[in-house]
Amino acid sequence: MFSRVARSARNTPSLPRASRALQARQFSSLDLIPDEPAGPSVVTQKIPGPKGLAASKEIDAFQDPRTHVIVPNYEESKGNYIVDADGNVILDVFAQISSIGIGYNVPALLELGKTDEFIKAALNRPALGSFPPVQWAEWLRTGLLTVQPKGLDQLITTLCGSSANETAFKCSFMAYRQRERGSPDAPFTKEEMDSCMDNQSPGAPQLSVLSFKSGFHGRLFGSLSATRSKAIHKVDIPAFDWPSAPFPALKYPLQEHVKENEAEEKRCLEEYEKILIESKSARPVAAVIIEPILSEGGDKHASPAFFRSLRLIAKKHGAFFIVDEVQTGVGATGTFWAHEKWGLQEGEEPDFVTFSKKMQAAGVFHKKETRPNAPYRNYNTWMGDPMRALQARKMIDIIRQHNLVSHTASTGASLASSFKSLFASSAAAGKVSNFRGEGDGTYLAWDLATPAMRDSFVGKMRNHGILIGGCGEQTVRLRPMLTFGEKHAEILVGTAEKVLKEL
Fold first, then answer.
1. 269 and 363: one domain?
2. Is 367 considered catalytic here?
3. At 29, which helix (H) or strand (E)?
4. Residue 300 annotated among the catalytic residues of the structure
């Protein structure tokens, strides 16, 4: 069922000779992980099995285990396959909620872990803001900064996606107030310095961050105030009084509903601009934050023109623009950054791009004019982790060497074709709808008829040796690693067909 893609689509003349040679044949995960399992192997009646359940019960003595899916044995896991406590070998197309870039126990990364450079970076963890390693500039210039989004040459490293977004919020607020004062060098007034200590204005200004309904940006206080995906994340937690705008409820397939979708996007853009205008009198919007695909909220898509309009309208009304690429970044959608597909011109770039997950490191790329005007304004003890910066550098090198972003794009195109055929068959009749993500690499999703059916599908897939994820109310989402390829896709689609028949 899995159709092959023309290899010529991956030929890029500007690539080094070694990379062009790799493109002469289809990439295989075995190129990086020679001992990757050939397929799933299920040895228990259900997953998790008795040992996995016992492991969760042991953890329950001191930590809530109710969100456990499985308890893995990471020492035995390899490539695209995760092994659980019972010895089940499972094809992982959820990848730790989209957090594993190229696989488990990749030999090249294990070799990095054995080097003196890596060991000493891990064991002598510095307070980076005050005591950066002498190699810090080199590590970033040869790693994370080689994939900086267009127009963003500044980098703040952080600990996770939530802290990356909160850092971008703080930078936005500070830059917004600097702009209001007329100069980054304008001194703070005594009233500002005194009032901020009582959480009062003008030192603690009544500014806001605008986010979108169904968006997810993290679980810390600021990022949680911008999160709009599920009530269970937010209930009982005090929140900032920040606005949310509607995100288009598009009809799929997109190409069959062009007029209706254009009208829906126009409606949402008009409401969005209205909120920006109305907020100026009470709680001005200092920043707008958006995911290129609303992931936790149900894998919701919009057109490149919609996102470009969001950016231009934010700029028109003086709001900084944050693109949250925590889940979509690092090649998952067939371009290194998902917002590359929006067609932004020079001068239209985002002000901030946040990242984490597949990068295994976290941080914020931004423009120099949004650097705080004084030290210690965006600061904490760790400010990231040199060990993770080294890991990210090695992964970026592997991604380039094996052309894994193009591989993911072509794999996703063929995988989408195979799923379209499956979902048009009798096995999926009345069960599957709204298949989406074509053109976005392996970032594919679909809805099941009910939330209960979605949960049953995910559970049955796991019992057949496929770890897959859900989001929103009734959506199934794919988040495989960049080394996911044709052989994995054949197993995935074949198992999905079997499970759909069981529903």
1. yes
2. no
3. none
4. no
